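Field: COMPLEX_INPUT
Field: COMPONENT_COUNT = two
Field: RESIDUE_TOTAL = 293
Field: MODE = joint
Values follow.
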Amino acid sequence: MIKVNTEDYPWTRPLSVQELLDEKGYIFPHIVVRINGEYIEEDDYPKRLVQDGDDVLVLHLMAGG
Amino acid sequence: MESGQYQRNHDAISQTEQAILAEKRVLVAGCGGLGGYVIENLGRVGVGHLRLVDSDLFEESNLNRQLFSSHMNLGRPKVLAAKQRMQAVNPLVEVEGFQTRITSENALELMQGCDLVVDCLDNIPSRKMLQAACEQAGLPLVHGAVAGWRGQVCVVLPGEKLLDKLYPRQEMDRGEEARQGTLSFTAATIGSIQASLAVNQLLGKMAWGKKVLMIDLLETQFQTIDLD
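Field: COMPLEX_OUTPUT
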């Protein structure tokens, strides 16, 4: 089990950040990802693996007023 | 001080709290989509002094969401429209309008005498500048931002620097709103929550904590995320 934005999400295999974003339907190009407090660079999304127990934070980057 | 103006605020807001609000001064940075709803709500609830800052004039593209914009006032300063609106809605509120851009040069001066700042700006560098100025002035900042159907809101106390967590990339100027635009009900929702958080903060009713409320109106989802 992992946490995605404080909610439990089943973990069945190591999956990349990009795969997780695709699975969860995060489609915005401007996204901020943090795993266990560490910010993940966009270039690393395809190779950075999410492991069992990880706490993943996904924020849509928005700044409109 | 009391008239029928605030009759229906009670007892959600007590007479004592109403008197406290009348003495408070809030700086609203940005009088567009979010700012319009923030000003409308703070004025109606009875925050006694509003200091409004925005350099822009109304243009046609504002009409889909900016509360004080109309076909009658295109080309006119947003701060002026906001001031006139408040004079019509609640003359008990003192409104100061500054038709200027808030920058690192003038922010501290504009914050002088204020109890709280509301961030209704439209780009990341200006928002971070505002956070830094609030930090220096020792003021709480109520942040709100929108993009399309989504929005976010949080309270940043001096020392917390929550915007650094929401906007960790230095090079970014704008977010998803550059592609998605901004919808009226998203601005109304986030602006109204900003106003309620501001009043909550001014009255010391409830601590917010290091978190952000993320809202998705397309999916009708509200989620509070810990940023600690």
